[in-house]
Specification:
single chain; mainly beta; Immunoglobulin-like; 3 domains; 5 helices; 27 strands; 34% strand; elongated
Length: 387
Amino acid sequence: MTWGKGTTNNSIGWGKGADSNSISWGAVYPESLSGDTDIQSGLSNTVAPAISGTNEVGEVLTCTSGTWSGGTPITYAYQWKRDGVNIGGATNNTYTLISADAETDITCVVTATNAEGSNSATSNTVTIAAEGDADALAFISAAGITDPTQQSAVNQLVLDLKAASIWTKMKAVYPFVGGSASAHKWNLKDPQDTNGAYRLSFSGGWTHSSTGATPNGTNATASTFWEMNDVAGRVDNFHMSYYSRTQNPSGDGWVIGRGDTNDGDPLYGLAIKRGGSNLRIFDPANLFYRISSTETDGRGFYVGSATANNARVFYKNAGSIGSGSSVSAHATFTGYPVYLGAMNGPTVLYQNNECGFSSFGDGLNGTEVTALNNAVTTFQTTLSRNV
């Protein structure tokens, strides 16, 4: 007798293929007495299932069924996996990414079934990006930041500012990532391309690179479009900051500020300027009443903060290097928004310190300045451009 396929797995030879024997047993017996290990479904995966979609938490991934050969009709079942482990309830052809998926590998197993049996195939692997803060993601999208290290640094910066409860005190934050004027102009706090969102408008000679933005010290300015609101000719609740990555070999030294309409004197701002053989770091007349400090290194993170008329402090790397009180009022004025890279006014004063970060907003106390310094230091270190 010539019994067919399946005779190796059972004693009486029932099985698929036993159709050429003297007693005519054949494919009508779908499985052997010893089990179905000798039975094949006839289904074969010729094109693997494929996952498509954005690999970010909150986005929807879609998995195709793939292409199969075999008897029809064919039905398909789906099982999504996270790092190789089944995700409970994820059995549709679409899957919405959740926080637990961040920084994991997602796959989808498709099981095809027809009248003869089943077969499975696994999709491509999709690695999910780290979960991002919504404000950070909005900036990253607007500025076109595609480098993962820069994306991570920006995200952590936002998280750190929020954790320190100083994010809400910021009117503008300029991280200077992306390496171009089109990327450097964006305000992290409000990444809209409008004057009211305080995005920067560069003019004159600027050099933009991966380490920051450098004015030429002769005609370079960046308008923030922020006009400080004087109260009786004085502003008692604001801060300005500037991360200086280079020394100041030339220029007037004013890294950020606004001047007087009457005589061109600086009113509000920060300056890092050479005086004699050392760097003389001082503030404008109305912010810290010309507090000065002699420094040998003009690099670092400078913050000027006023929380009251008698509470004005100038910081370098979170350490106080000067304070002042009871500042006299000046005439109120409009029409001179704060410049970055220069001091704006009837007479514009320039500088050429490379900027790796700048911000302005409400006044910060000493604890808040320390938190800001820590956040900015972490940010610069992640980008390998700290000084």
